[in-house]
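Supplementary Methods S3. Complex input for the L-homoserine-bound model.
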Amino acid sequence: MNKTIKVFPPGTVANLVCGFDVLGLCLHEPADEMQVTLTNNRQVIITSADGYNLPSNPALNTAGAPLLEIMQQLNNDTGFEVVIKKNIKPGSGVGSSAASAAGAVVAANYLLDNIFSKEEMVSFAMFGEKVASGVKHADNVAPCIYGGITLIRSIFPLDIVSIPAPPLFVTVVHPQIEVKTSDARQILKKQVLLKDAIKQWGNIAGLVAGFMKNDYELIGRSLEDVIIEPIRSILIPGFDEVKKKSKDAGALGGGISGSGPSVFMLSKDEVTANAVKLEMHAVYNGIGLDHHVYVTRINNEGVRIETAP
Ligand code: HSE
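Predicted complex, serialized as structure tokens:
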């Protein structure tokens, strides 16, 4: 008999400003909904239950590609049917492609009686990121699968470290424009100056230390990116103003979420996070750009599996 499971893979904030491709954080909201069925018909069938025109060819779909890899490893008659309802808008910068990939893999693993480790699940999910952005980065799929904040110390071989952190509130604004991760990677310089690299790795180490020591001031000081942000922020209208006004309102700091266009800010408490939300609204209302703002928290669980009542 075919077994079916429902999972809710959440959004994620990759990079965390200074940690390009190596740091990521899992959010409570938004989250997609996926129904995955295990079959004994060696193929992947994808159905969309939303208005997004995402490819149904599994090799070109961020949920499908990781499942094809799992099937190749299993080398038997196993197949999957997937129904995806995306609540995380593709191209928004909060890990939409990663949610599909991570959700598919976590569901498959559950249906296969948990044969894979978390690290193995991340390595499968990275095939979805390759489809989306041309590159196997893990800073969205790892926090989506592990929950919390993750450090990707290495991709080949995979080495993922969970980073404990104090309670933090995350305000996210999504200006309604689309930035493709592949485009946002293409514009980056291939070389960095040593003086910039020194600043950047000081900030990454400071940010990780700040999380682990519950040192909010250190977290705030370390949320600085001298390599990627100066280039990518040009694609995001109102970016500098959002950042300045959010910090004036009390945010610890923040920046581009993943490859954008969403911008996130971390705050110590909910009152500040809501004040930041109002400032973000004001900036985009001033520019006349349609946008969506929300306050959420760090999700320490990752992909939620709906267990039968
Ligand atoms: N680290 C990736 C990038 C994340 O910034 O290109 C994409 O969400």
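Residues 194-212 form the longest helix (19 residues). The mean pLDDT is 96.
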